[in-house]
Amino acid sequence: MVAIGDELLNGRTRDANVYYLAGWLEERGVALQEVRFVADEEEAIVEAVNALRRRADIVFTSGGIGPTHDDITADAIGTAFGVPVAEREDSLAILEEWYAKKGEEVTDSRRRMARVPSGARLIANSISGAPGFAIENVYVMAGVPAIFEAMLAAADQEIQRGPTYTVYTVIGAGGESTIAEGLKAVESAIKGLKIGSYPGKSGTSGRLAIVCKAFDPALAVQGAKAVEGLFRAKGVDPETVEGFGPNLT
Amino acid sequence: MVAIGDELLNGRTRDANVYYLAGWLEERGVALQEVRFVADEEEAIVEAVNALRRRADIVFTSGGIGPTHDDITADAIGTAFGVPVAEREDSLAILEEWYAKKGEEVTDSRRRMARVPSGARLIANSISGAPGFAIENVYVMAGVPAIFEAMLAAADQEIQRGPTYTVYTVIGAGGESTIAEGLKAVESAIKGLKIGSYPGKSGTSGRLAIVCKAFDPALAVQGAKAVEGLFRAKGVDPETVEGFGPNLT
Quick one: which of A68, A103, A182, A243 has the most CB atoms within 10 Å? Predict the structure, then answer.
């Protein structure tokens, strides 16, 4: 994924789309490999998109496809693919219909949103009309979270699913180093099991969340039971929940 | 910045450190140029760190320096710089003192946290003891937000400050395209002024936040007044606040 926007880099906005996309892809059995945040600068966008589209099956971008002068993503994507960017009839028709329903006009700045790189497929936008687009394996979507999410839903049928993980989280008192030594042994012993260790606090005392995941549900259960055993050996009574469990702070 | 951790890419954890660092750097007049999120995999960490440390004055990393087997950041940084990673006496002494105060032992897994790349400077950790480290222009810090923030504070004196922006945000009713046409003209007319446009909603109606920033406070004020004029020309009564203003959702 490439998250585009000066506001993500200057402290104005806390990105929400990476987290949403990560969970959405996980549910579909697709691994998010890498994310880059870049400014609204053509060179930075082109470099990031070209680097990731060559190594990943799919690239998603967020941001920079609105009507204002700092929205340069469509042009940057055109540059990245070496194709022209021009207004398209079908995209303009969508804008005209959307604004006509609101009794508003397609101003020159709104009309900019009908410009897409040659060869792109449009992605429907049920929230604010102006479509996103996909070109080859790059999905170009809005940065406003509600619109990003709607466009992702619209593109869902094009996403090839993979096997999904079964996940259990075992939570217990103590710091990360309490059971660190046993975790490696458990992960080594159960082939196909992945373990993640996430320390945090509950009030003033340390809490630890251990995530056990595997494609085979039986292995995930087996891993969670082994981790429960590690906690109990330290005199801690753990709690196991399905899924990623709570984020400790 | 390089944010390291499988949990950021699989939907378990919503990163908080990028947003914190971005605002922290902005206050110090330092521009955050790019962020990459990578998994707990040596090759991915090495590639991202090496790419960014050559083009940026400073690189910050978060995550992967704890006591568990999936914490591989110190080794990856050693590989990135081509230097050995070994336990250091001063780092081990810090751990011993920290755990002695708590009446606990430095177990083998805790002891792993005393391993740092050759030539690194330690970064104090007032929250959980185990230090981060810096090597050349790369600052390697924990992923837990409270610890990340404490390490950033400890490294503060090494960060060279730049000129800071004065920022005003003008907020008014309407969608982004309402005044988009005027914004480009204002930005062109006032040299040194940067304008960002952030649409969102307030209840069910569209709201628009226009950020005006400049190194010269007078230009930021002049920009905000010009943007207020654009809103008023559309019959909208805008509100101006100092700083980045609220994030609309």
Answer: A68
Task: Report the residue of B12, B62, B169 to disrupt the A interface, i.e. the one with the largest count of A CBs within 10 Å.
Answer: B12
Per-residue model confidence (pLDDT) at position B202? 66
ipTM: 0.91
3-state secondary structure of B110: helix
- CATH number for region B2-158: 3.40.980.10
Per-residue confidence in pLDDT tens, chain B, 249 aa: 999 999 999 999 999 999 999 999 999 999 999 999 999 999 999 999 999 999 999 999 999 999 888 899 999 999 999 999 999 999 999 999 999 999 989 988 899 999 999 999 999 999 999 999 999 999 999 999 999 999 999 999 999 999 999 999 999 998 777 788 899 899 999 999 999 988 877 666 788 999 999 999 999 999 999 999 999 999 999 999 999 888 776
Q: Where in chain A is the domain with CATH 3.40.980.10?
A: 2-158
Amino acid at B73: T
Which DSSP state fits A136? T
**For the whole prediction, is pTM greater than 0.90?**
yes
CA distance A184 to chain B (A): 6
Task: Show residues of chain A in contact with B32, CB under 8 Å.
Answer: 9-10
Question: Between B9, B183, B197, which is nearest A32 by CB?
Answer: B9
A207 reaches B (C-beta below 8 A): no
Question: Rounded distance, CA B25 to CA B161, Å?
Answer: 9
Class of domain B166-242: alpha beta
Note whether B160 contacts A: Cβ–Cβ < 8 A: no
Contact (CB<8Å) A66/B11: no
* Residues of chain A positioned with their CB less than 8 A from the CB of B145: 249
- In chain B, where does the domain assigned CATH 3.30.70.360 lie? 166-242
Strand partners, A116: A86
CB < 8 Å from B in window 13-42 of A: 13-16, 18-19, 22-27, 31-39
B27 CB-side CA count, 13 A? 7
Residue B84 in contact with residue B74, Cβ under 8 Å? no
- First-to-last alpha carbon distance for chain B, in angstroms, is 26
- Residue A196 and residue B144: Cβ atoms within 8 Å? no
